Amino acid sequence: MESKPGERRKEARYPIEAEVLVHTASGQSIPANATNISSFGMLLHIQLPSALAVNDEVTVEIRLPEDVGKAFSAWGVARIAHINGSHVGVQLFGGTFDSAD
User: Fold this and answer.
1) Cα angle, residue 67 at apex, residues 64 and 71 outer, rounded to 5°
2) How many CA atoms lie within 13 A of 6 on its CB side?
3) Which of 1, 70, 71, 94 qualifies as a cystine partner to 12, CB 3.0-4.6 A?
4) What angle do CA 54, 94, 75 make, to 5 degrees?
5) CATH no. for residue 78?
6) CA angle, 49 as apex, 87 and 17 as ends, to 5°?
7) Beta strands 41-45 and 87-99: pairing type?
8) 100 or 29: which carries more pLDDT confidence?
């Protein structure tokens, strides 16, 4: 579990390397990379996070490699929980998983 003294996380965070698209309410799609994930949240690295604000509701599209020839995608409704430079924490509320055939 990745945590530091004084943190209030209740769930373990796991390292991940996945491409993500963050879809805003205004229709903007912002590319990002996921760096860790838990049951209820994810940490993203975004080159230009200025289009986002804390408490914005967004949809995240996560592309997870299942194998070399086939991709797996997940959609989730999320809220921007914090922004620290190019790192953006999102709180996940729900989603679906689809084969990207």
Assistant:
1) 45
2) 0
3) 1
4) 90
5) 2.30.110.10
6) 45
7) antiparallel
8) 29
Q: Is residue 68 part of a domain?
A: yes
1, part of any domain? no
Residue range(s) defining the domain that contains residue 42: 14-99
* pLDDT, mean of residues 20-34: 93
**Residue 4, helix vs strand vs coil:** coil
Residue 90: inside a domain, yes or no?
yes
* Domain assignment of residue 6, yes or no: no
What percent of the chain is predicted at pLDDT more than 90?
46
DSSP SS3 for 79: strand
Highest mean pLDDT (candidates 12-16, 31-35, 45-49): 31-35
DSSP state of 6: T
Structural contact between residues 44 and 31, judged by C-beta atoms closer than 8 angstroms: no
- The CA distances from residue 43 to 52, 70, 99, 101, in Å, are 14, 24, 23, 27
